[in-house]
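Hi C.,

You asked whether I'd gotten around to modeling the 206-residue construct. I have! Everything is below, sequence then structure, no commentary in between.
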Amino acid sequence: MDFRSSEQALGPRSEDALPATATAAVKVVIVGGFGVGKTTLVGSVSEIRPLTTEETMTQAGIGVDDTLGVERKATTTVAMDFGRISVNDELVLYLFGTPGQQRFWFLWRGLFEGALGAVVLVDTRRLEVSFDVIGRLEERGVPFIVAVNTFPDAPVYPVEEIRGALDLPESVPIVDCDARLRDSSRDVLMTLMRYLQSLAVPAGAS
C-alpha cells in the first residue's frame, strides 16, 4: 500500500487550501426567500468547490412550502450552502447560504453566529418573500445590503421603488446582480464589504 498517497487523499485538495498570505477571515451570510438564487450565488463566486445541501423536493412540502412563482423548482436547500472567496491576499470571506423555507429557519441561529454582515437576495417577481427575512435581520441587528437578482422574466423597477416596497432606509445599499455570474456576485460581496467598512468608520473620520 502507498501510505503517502493514502495520506494525501485524506487531506484537502490543493486548490481548496487557504492562501498562505491570508491574515483575516470574515463570515458572511446569504439570505432570501425560497428560490431567489442563494445557492446559485454561492456556487458562482466560490473559489473552492462549494458545499451544498440541496435535496429533491417531495410531496411532503406540498401545502407547507410557498412555491408560488417558482413552481418549476425541483430542489431545495435543507441546511446551508458554504463557499469561500479571497477578496485580496489577506482577506477571505466565508459564505453561508441559508435555507429559504420557513420550516428550516430554526437553523438560522447557528448560521448567523459570528456573521459580520449579510446579503439579502431578492426577486422582483416575489418581493413579499423577503419581508420576513429582512425583519429577522433587523431584529438581530445584522447589517445587510440588498441584491436584486435579475431573472430573465422579472420586472425591472427603479431602486427607490424597491426601497419603498421593502421599507428600507436610504443608508442600505441596493444593487443589481446576476447570481449566475462570478463577477456580478463578487461585486455584490464587495459592496457589502464597503458598507460594513463605512459603518465601522465614524462619520467625519479621516
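If it helps when you're writing up: Confidence is low (pLDDT under 50) at residues 1-9, 60-65.

Thanks,
B.
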